[in-house]
UniProtKB/TrEMBL annotation:
Cited PROSITE patterns: SIGMA70_ECF
Domain RNA polymerase sigma-70 region stretches: 23-88
SUPFAM superfamilies, alphabetized: Sigma2 domain of RNA polymerase sigma factors, Sigma3 and sigma4 domains of RNA polymerase sigma factors
Protein keywords: DNA-binding, Sigma factor, Transcription, Transcription regulation
Similarity field: Belongs to the sigma-70 factor family. ECF subfamily.
Record-linked Pfam families: Sigma70_r2 (PF04542), Sigma70_r4_2 (PF08281)
Domain called RNA polymerase sigma factor 70 region 4 type: residue spans: 125-177
Protein known as: RNA polymerase sigma factor
Record flagged with keyword Signal: no
Length: 192
């Protein structure tokens, strides 16, 4: 029998550690991935992700399935990430793999020329830098929409704002990113 998230939360509330473990397995990668994208620090993202699941465990008895469990977990993540931003403990740093090397931003097919690969990599770095420069709510909205493919309704619930406010946040973020991309393109043409 396949347990739903709601069933697993009820079992977790009764002290069933196997149910809790299954919940963590189901949702860990999505929450951790969003945390890494927001924080740009794998170790801090790991710590925050663990806090998300610890808070979920502690609140299992009070959980009301009004939305998807993952939406609720993203809401916890948002609060913890925004608290980090408020503490100003986040420093911009490149993403680093576990072996200490900068991560490759994207994977390319072998038919891509080295110049195309370099251009694409530079473009992706510029986009990531631009996303990093967005205000926290806009950054979170962009990550949840673009990387996690959540609906406007889910993002609104996570951010604690209305759907129109969510659309407005995303519109302003896209405008900022468009302008950043124009500057990147201009920068390219002036290099030539």
């Amino acid at each position: 029998m396949e347990y739903t998230d709601s069933m697993l939360m009820k079992l977790t509330a009764k002290g069933d550690d196997e149910a809790y473990s299954l919940l963590v397995q189901r949702h860990y990668q999505a929450i951790f991935g969003a945390a890494v994208k927001m924080l740009k620090d794998r170790y801090l993202a790991e710590e925050i992700t663990q806090k998300v699941f610890l808070q979920a465990y502690r609140a299992a008895g009070r959980y009301e399935p009004r939305a998807k469990l993952r939406t609720w977990l993203y809401t916890i993540l948002r609060r913890l990430v925004f608290n980090q931003f408020r503490k100003k403990e986040i420093q911009s740093s490149p993403l680093v793999t576990e072996n200490g090397e900068d991560r490759d931003i994207t994977t390319y097919q072998s038919t891509t020329s080295p110049l195309d690969h370099l251009m694409k990599q530079e473009q992706m770095e510029w986009i990531e830098k631009s996303i990093d420069g967005l205000p926290p709510r806009q950054k979170m909205a962009v990550i949840l929409k673009s990387y996690e493919d959540l609906s406007y309704e889910e993002i609104a619930r996570i951010l604690g704002v209305s759907v129109p406010a969510t659309k407005s946040l995303l519109f302003r973020a896209r405008e900022t990113l468009r302008e950043a991309f124009r500057k990147w393109e201009q920068n390219l043409t002036t290099k030539d």
